[in-house]
Amino acid sequence: MPATPVPPARSATFFLASVIILKKGEAIKLRAGETLVYKTRPHWIISAWAAWLASIAVWFFFASNRVTSAEDAQMWLGFAWTVSVVTLIAAKVTQFYRWSSRFVFTARRVTLKNGILPQRSTGFPLRNLPMRQCAIVYSLVWLIALLTHAIPACGWGPEGHKVIALIAEQNMSSAALERAKVILSGNSLEGVANWADDIKGERPYTARWHYIDIPLDASTIDLERDCPHGACVLVKTEQFLAALKNPRSNRAAKAEALKFVVHLTGDLHQPLHCENDDDEGGNLLRVIWHGYPDDLHWVWDTGLIQDIDRDPESLAEELERRITREDRLAWDRGSIADWVLQSHRLAQMVAYQDLRRERPPVIGRRYEREADPVVELQLERAGIRLAYLLDQRLH
């Protein structure tokens, strides 16, 4: 279940917006008589070409799943926009177009009919606006497409992982919490909660460690079927917990193991990280969310959590108040495999429900009323269980 690829519709918008800028990189200058010279403005076109090429590069990195964290996505989107703006400024300031245009760009002559310029010569669709306003409008369209480009799904979204880490910190023993801070060189669990997502761009082989592909209709775990070569959230969480406990592990190895444990414990409580219905954990299942198309995985990663509360601190505080002593005792029981199967059952009963009946399924209020308590419950369980696991390994 790799990270969510870029939705085709948004990719097309992102790409075509740059092409439109090319179309509008034109100026019209009046000459004597009834003739106009329909001439390009190369500094705009140079910028548009830079934006176009940068768009292709960003699209490639998204579509190939090389961008697998919000931070990486923001970096590449910022890069694409910066390239176009810097190129525009450089081309204008250096007047590069003065000599390049004679080789690259051509002028065309069109004749006025009764003093009216044919509409087709001013471009489509903003025919009646001057070139500068057209260029500004299309640049803004390109920027909006850029900024609204989908960011890949990465387990619980950043908010969810922070909530889990904050709950864990409130429920760990003081000794274990202090030991964790020493291993992390003073950093908190919240501070490293999304580290495992952040490094997937540099270490793409770790992407498979964040989920386990249990068939949606299955009722048991088969590691040979669901976790080939031991590359899944179940096996890797157990391995990193063992590394934390191992006295032979050096500090760097323990720090990395701890960061993975903090993150993967959250991932194994996300129901869509513990199933596969031939849709890459819901990444390929298109749904209608708040009137717009999206994928089921993103809805569970981020959409539902943001609807509940966008602020991790306030959400963690609210969830922490609800957790009872009985909850803590009940949730500490069982193995990691038991917790994975629990998440899998929630995917069967709640996440997918009757979504297969509609194409595309609509995530409505009834669905949210059933899903929201499950999201909150899984965040609470993950926080308490993370505290329990670290108390055991860090004493």
Brief characterization of the structure:
The protein is mainly α and 395 residues long.
Cα gyration radius (Å): 27 Å
| Approximate shape | globular
Q: Work out the helix count.
A: 17
Largest beta sheet, briefly? 3 strands, antiparallel
| Spans of at least 5 consecutive residues with low confidence | 1-11, 21-40, 63-71, 96-135, 145-153
Overall residue-averaged pLDDT value: 76
- Which structural class do you get from the secondary structure elements? mainly alpha
Helix content: 55-70%
How many strand elements? 6
Strand order of the largest sheet: 1-2-3
Report the order of strands and helices: HEEHHHEHHHHHHHHEEHHHHEH
Terminal residue distance:
35 Å
Binned strand content: 5-15%
Account of the 3D structure:
- With 395 residues, the protein is mainly α.
- Helices cover 58% and strands 7% of the residues.
- The chain is built from 17 helices and six strands.
- A three-stranded antiparallel beta sheet has the order 1-2-3. A three-stranded mixed beta sheet has the order 5-4-6.
- Strand 4 and strand 5 (292-295) form a beta hairpin.
- The chain is globular, with a radius of gyration of 27 Å.
- The model is unreliable at 1-11, 21-40, 63-71, 96-135 and 145-153 (pLDDT under 50).
